[in-house]
Design goal:
The protein has one domain (2-232). It is 80% helix and 0% strand. The protein contains eight helices and no strands. The radius of gyration is 19 Å and the shape is globular.
């Protein structure tokens, strides 16, 4: 996961020559959005999901899935939209928009990878509870084929989705059209809604995770296609200064 995040950042920079500032802006926006999302979850999730538990099975799952996905989209896409409305230069060029998405996805991948590495190191330690952690890891690995690949593959899908959805949202700002923004919000809501569905249904550790990864990959591909479409048809900004690197950031 750490490697996936680093490679994504390097490839974006090599391909576009855009300034690193857009990467770090994306990382900061993701950090702020996740902080708000965590606070929201702590304050409201128990009440909302508790209400859903009183509903018939279908509506319980539908409401919970929609709530989890919508919560993520409002926070992550909302912060991106708000920042672009305040600072229009974010949406001036498609490569900047992609950098914002790469920053969000890559930093998330690196942090999750670091957490996984810390968990592995703890399991290998002499701590009294390390044996339980080792057993849990062995059971998870035994239950899933190619278990070690699940995390990196998921991060590839996540980064594609982060980039595609943020390009959609920023394209909407650049075009002054609501449709691309709605597309970005909806695709991100579906992506995180899948994760919400898996948890609500109690499928974590009980089903083949590769089916979940396939569903995430489909949504990520849709986001990448949508983002690519808008990026190829980006409106030319009037008198927009070029980024560094000796090349204009088209």
């Amino acid at each position: 996961m750490v490697v996936v995040g680093c490679v994504a950042a390097v490839l974006w920079r090599a391909h576009t020559g855009a300034r690193w500032r857009w990467f770090w802006i994306g990382a900061c926006l993701w950090t702020a959005a996740v902080a708000v999302k965590v606070a929201w979850a702590l304050l409201a999730n128990e009440a909302v999901l508790g209400l859903a538990e009183r509903l018939p099975s279908f509506w319980r799952v539908a409401l919970g899935t929609a709530y989890v996905g919508g919560q993520s989209a409002v926070c992550e896409m909302g912060f991106t939209l708000g920042a672009a409305l305040l600072w229009g230069s974010m949406a001036a060029r498609s490569r900047r928009a992609a950098g914002v998405g790469v920053g969000a996805g890559a930093v998330e991948a690196v942090l999750l990878g670091a957490v996984a590495l810390a968990a592995w190191a703890f399991a290998r330690s002499a701590h009294p509870e390390a044996a339980q952690a080792r057993d849990a890891m062995r059971q998870a690995a035994a239950a899933q084929p190619l278990f070690w690949l699940v995390g990196p593959v998921e991060r590839v899908s996540a980064i594609l989705a982060h980039v595609g959805t943020r390009v959609c949202v920023l394209a909407g700002v650049a075009r002054r059209r609501a449709a691309p923004v709605v597309v970005g919000f909806c695709l991100f809501a579906v992506l995180d809604g899948i994760a919400g569905f898996v948890h609500i249904m109690g499928l974590v550790g009980k089903s083949n995770m590769w089916w979940t990864e396939l569903a995430l990959a489909v949504v990520a591909a849709a986001a990448a296609l949508a983002g690519g479409h808008y990026a190829r048809n980006w409106p030319a900004p009037p008198q927009a200064p070029p980024d560094g690197g000796g090349a204009a950031d088209a």
